[in-house]
Each structure stands twice: as C-alpha cells, then as structure tokens.
Write a structure and sequence with these properties.
Structural class: alpha+beta
Radius of gyration: 19 Å
Strand order of the largest sheet: 1-8-3-6
Order of helices and strands: HEEEEEEEEHHHEHHEEH
CATH superfamily of the largest domain: Jelly Rolls
CATH architecture of the largest domain: Sandwich
Oligomer: single chain
Distance between the termini: 39 Å
CATH topology of the largest domain: Jelly Rolls
Number of strands: 11
Number of helices: 7
Strand content: 15-25%
Helix content: 25-40%
CATH class of the largest domain: Mainly Beta
Length: about 240
C-alpha cells in the first residue's frame, strides 16, 4: 500500500479534521507520524499507556477487547476519517481496547505532547476533536442500548446496513463484500458464530439479503431497516446469547 498525502486523500472532506484549511492541515500533519499497517497487524494494545490519538486515513481498523478466555469482542470497525485511541493525564492509566488493521491501512499517530502543542496553536481544532470524541461516546452508549433492547437479528441487520453505508451510498441490490469472518460478525453483535450463521440464513429467508459467492447482497433495504429497528424491550432469546 502506498502512503497517500493529505491533499490527495479521498476522505479529505469527510473526516473530523481532514478538511482543515491549508496551513492548519500542514501543522496538523507535522504534529503526527504516518504509519502503514498490513492486514491483521496490531496498531495498539489493550493495557498500553493511553498517550496518543490515532487518525484512520485509509483502510478499516478493528477495535476490540479480549476476555479472560482469550476471545476477542469487537467494539467498532473504524474507517477513513475516524479518530481512535485514548488520552490520559495519568501515566498509570491503560488503554481499554486494542486496535488491529482489518485491511491494509494508513494511520496517523498524534502523541499527547505534540497534540497539546497543536491545540494551543489552533484552539478551534480542539473543539473539533472534542466533538469527535463526544460522537464516539454517543455511539458507544447507543451500542450498549442496542445490546440491552434489541434482539440479535435486529443487531445483525443494523450492522449490515452500517457496513453497507461505509462502502458507499446504499442502493437496493448493493453487493457488500464482507472482509470479516462469520466469527468477527458474531463478535460485533455479541453472539456465537453458530448463531450469526443462523441469523444470516433467517435474513435470506425473509428476502432482506441474498448471497453471491462470498458477498452478501442487500436485496431489500426497507425490510432490512425495519428488522434493524425492531425493539425487544429487553427481552432476550437465550439462543442469541454468547455461550
């Protein structure tokens, strides 16, 4: 994968800081270090010091936590323009999650000290960063609500719509090239791999999705959206729970 400069980045107008004006963008770029990652390469690890923010420039990055049995639980799939990582003023704190490149990825790393200097020079960008982190908090709360109130089928339908949007404007019959294993899809919605396979089959029977080789085809967006919005008010089917 080639390194892509900020000026030629496809996410230039869509990210939180990607659309900064010329001189500010140059200072922002010089405040960080750009790295290229291979698929499955770890970007940072759970338990490491929370001393930097990371900007995903290209590719997809998986944020996850590991339980005591060594199983990974996916928290988020971050795409171009997303800010990940954590900052703390206490050196005894630790990162709450790990990040791994799902695809070839370009990531810019902004250490705490250099980021603080940049914000002193450009305080308006500090407000942008605060807004981005607030959005991440809102998304985390929304996901916690979905886990509590929505059934597994609704969560899978919502995930497929989210992945579809990430690959471009949603269109009926859109092919969704899943770069994720069935196990990873299961981890994203908090179920076992077997349950995820069963749920995909159920969505196919309902006509919401279809298969084309390894791809998933979003055949009926309205139906998929209705399934995604279904609220079970906290009632769960035990077969949907992770063992």
């Amino acid at each position: 994968m080639r390194r892509v400069p900020c000026e030629g980045c496809p996410a230039r107008g869509s990210g939180t800081v990607c659309d900064l004006p010329g001189e500010v963008l140059t200072d922002w770029r010089q405040s960080g270090t750009t790295m290229l990652y291979r698929p499955r390469q770890v970007i940072f690890g759970e338990g490491a010091p929370p001393s930097a923010l990371y900007l995903v420039c290209h590719g997809a990055v998986k944020l996850y936590q590991s339980d005591r049995f060594g199983r990974d639980h996916i928290l988020e799939i971050a795409g171009p323009g997303a800010l990940i990582g954590e900052l703390s003023l206490d050196d005894n704190d630790a990162m709450s999650a790990s990040a791994e490149a799902l695809t070839a990825a370009q990531v810019s790393i902004f250490p705490r000290e250099r980021l603080a200097g940049f914000i002193e020079r450009h305080p308006e960008t500090g407000v942008r960063l605060l807004a981005a982190l607030s959005r991440e908090l809102s998304l985390a709360r929304r996901k916690a609500r979905d886990l509590a109130l929505k059934g597994a089928e609704s969560r899978l339908a919502g995930l497929l719509l989210q992945l579809g949007r990430a690959s471009g404007a949603l269109q009926p019959g859109q092919h969704l090239e899943l770069r994720y294993t069935r196990r990873e899809l299961a981890e994203m919605i908090g179920v076992s791999t077997e349950t995820a396979i069963r749920l995909l089959t159920a969505l196919k029977r309902k006509g919401a999705v279809a298969s084309d080789g390894r791809d998933v085809v979003l055949t009926d967006l309205d139906r998929l959206g209705r399934i995604a919005q279904h609220d079970e008010s906290g009632l769960h089917d035990d077969t949907d729970a992770r063992p």
